[in-house]
Amino acid sequence: MSDDLDQLQLLRSAFESFRERADILERSYNHMAEKFSELNIELDEKNRRLEESLAEQERLRVQLESILETMHNGVLSVDTMGRVTQFNRAAEEISGYSRSQVIGGQVDTCFGEKGFSEGTIHEVLRSGKGHERDEKVLWSRTGDPVPVVYQSSLLKDRSGERLGAVEIFSDISRVKELEKENQQNKTLAALGEMAATLAHEIKNPLGAMGTWARLLDRTFPVDDSRKSTLGKIIDALSRLNKIVSSMLIFGRQGNAVSFRTINIKELLHEFIDSMEVEVVFVSGKSIEVVKEWNDDPLFVSIEPEKIRQVLLNLVINAVQAMGEEGVLTVTCIDPEQNGDYVQINVADTGSGIPETELETIFTPFHTTKENGTGLGLAIVKKMMEFHKGVISVKSTQNSGTTFELFLPVVNQIQ
Question: Tell me, which fold does domain 176-251 have in CATH?
Answer without folding.
Answer: Helix Hairpins (1.10.287)
